[in-house]
Amino acid sequence: xxxxxxxxxxxxxxxxxxxxxxxxxxxxxxxxxxxxxxxxxxxxxxxxxxxxxxxxxxxxxxxxxxxxxxxxxxxxxxxxxxxxxxxxxxxxxxxxxxxxxxxxxxxxxxxxxxxxxxxxxxxxxxxxxxxxxxxxxxxxxxxxxxxxxxxxxxxxxxxxxxxxxxxxxxxxxxxxxxxxxxxxxxxxxxxxxxxxxxxxxxxxxxxxx
Length: 209
Description:
Blueprint: H1 2-27, H2 29-39, H3 43-70, H4 74-101, H5 106-109, H6 129-144, H7 148-167, H8 173-191, H9 194-203
């Protein structure tokens, strides 16, 4: 039953990612970018994608971290630590990969791109490190925290971040898809040390009855 629950939980990340990847292949990366960036734009999305998505994600993530750490339970604190480490690793690995692919950003290759919001404006586009950071934080919460509803909501906000960086004109959809899958790979590696982290914290008397 536990394995079935874990598979169902992971599918919350995998299924939309696979669907987005297929959509990108079928429609085309540039065409899908233009559809999101220009053809569905409106004032509501301008505001929510520019300011709402980073604020919603950040506030909810901080709330979860506080909830985990203040619980004073070793397994909860370990989850918080692994989430932070995975997010940092995801961003770092993504930043290094950018220099391997050196893919220009949409506004450097396309003539008409809507640029809105204070998103990252570095030289390279692939993969989206902003997306990797968000999913790096979210996936361990989703997989390790027993209260799955928090991880589901955080994952939704992470997807909103991914959508926002495309809508705002800073990334192609393929950058976001790659970022999600890369973050999943990194999270799978870091999650394996969860039991070791719990045992270490318990020895340090982090858990209180």
